[in-house]
Specification:
The complex is a heterodimer of chains A (114) and B (110).
Chain A lengths: L4 E3 L2 E4 L5 E6 L6 E7 L5 E8 L14 E5 L5 E5 L8 E8 L8 E2 L3 E5 L1
Parallel strand pairs in A: 2-10
Antiparallel strand pairs in A: 1-3, 3-7, 4-5, 4-8, 6-7, 8-9, 8-10
Chain B lengths: L3 E2 L4 E5 L4 E7 L6 E7 L6 E7 L4 E4 L2 E6 L4 E6 L8 E8 L4 E3 L3 E6 L1
Classes of the chains: A mainly beta (114), B mainly beta (110).
Chain lengths: 114, 110
């Protein structure tokens, strides 16, 4: 499809395991963002990729979180040694250029840590 | 620190009436605001935006008003339709990143 694609849509894992979440942005969009939404909370910014520039990692909550964007397209968010407080919906968005344009969101990955 | 606040977690409106969703912000550096609509199990969908140089932007049934002195914006939906039932998020941009509110759940009663 033409939208932002995220996989898996749901992920259940045990505390302490590592997880990888994938985002396939809209073709041609140079900017890619990761957010998470915990229960009853707004969207919390995690990380922002813009073209070939170094990513803005200012929102990552701990060093257990990391993200890559290979070839300026697909991105992977990795959470190591998951904790129960990591349970949330992780949303990826892309935009044509940068922060001054509306972001197009995927449907998210619902992560549950047991 | 919640820079964007949506103080009403829910709103119920009769079909055909006006829905008014409110949003307050604290950061005077915000120069761009957006509203997103979110259905359950789906990602947010962009609805309407407004630049800080304007005080109103209209798109069909949706109008966003910005009051910079009060650091307040609102989304008006008129007439409201049952398909408008969703969670609405407002977001402010300081030129560096977006800050989202916690959302208001709108229910339009047929």
């Amino acid at each position: 499809g033409a939208g932002v694609s995220q996989s898996p849509s749901n992920k259940v894992t045990e505390k302490g395991k590592d997880v990888e979440l994938r985002c396939d942005p809209i073709s041609g969009h140079t900017a890619l963002y990761w957010y998470r939404q915990s229960l009853g909370q707004g969207l919390e910014f995690l990380i922002y990729f813009q073209g070939n520039s170094a990513p803005d990692k200012s929102g990552l909550p701990s060093d257990r979180f990391s993200a890559e964007r290979t070839g300026g397209s697909v991105s992977t968010l990795t959470i190591q040694r998951t904790q129960q407080e990591d349970s949330a919906v992780y949303l990826c968005a892309s935009s044509f250029q940068g922060w001054n344009q509306p972001q197009h969101f995927g449907d998210g990955t619902r992560l549950s840590i047991l | 620190d919640q820079q964007v606040k949506q103080n009403s977690p829910s709103l119920r409106v009769q079909e055909g009436r006006i829905s008014i969703l409110n949003c307050d912000y604290t950061n005077s550096m915000f120069d761009y605001f957006l509203w997103y609509k979110k259905y359950p199990a789906e990602g947010p969908t962009f609805l309407i935006s407004i630049s800080s140089i304007k005080d109103k932007n209209e798109d069909g049934r949706f109008t966003v008003f910005l009051n910079k002195s009060a650091k307040h914006l609102s989304l008006h939906i008129v007439p409201s339709q049952p398909g408008d039932s969703a969670v609405y998020f407002c977001a402010g941009n300081n030129g560096n990143q977006f800050y989202f509110g916690t959302g208001t759940s709108l229910t339009v009663i047929p």
